[in-house]
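Quick note —
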Amino acid sequence: MKELVEYLPFLIPLVIVQFALFGYALYHILTHTTYKRGNRTLWLVLTIVFMNFVGPILYFVLGKGDE
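Predicted structure written out below.
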C-alpha cells in the first residue's frame, strides 16, 4: 500500500485525463453522424472496450470525420 501512495501524484492526473478523453470521445460519437471509417456502433464498442486511452485515441485518429 505504501508503494501505491508514492505513485498517486502521477496516477491521479493520468486517471483524470483518461476519463476526460473517454467522456469527450463518447460525447463526440453520440452527437455526430459522419465517420471516416466504420459506424457509430463500431466506435462505441471500441471506445468502451479499449477505454484506457487506446479506444478514444483510435477514434480520434481513425474514426472522427471532418466537420
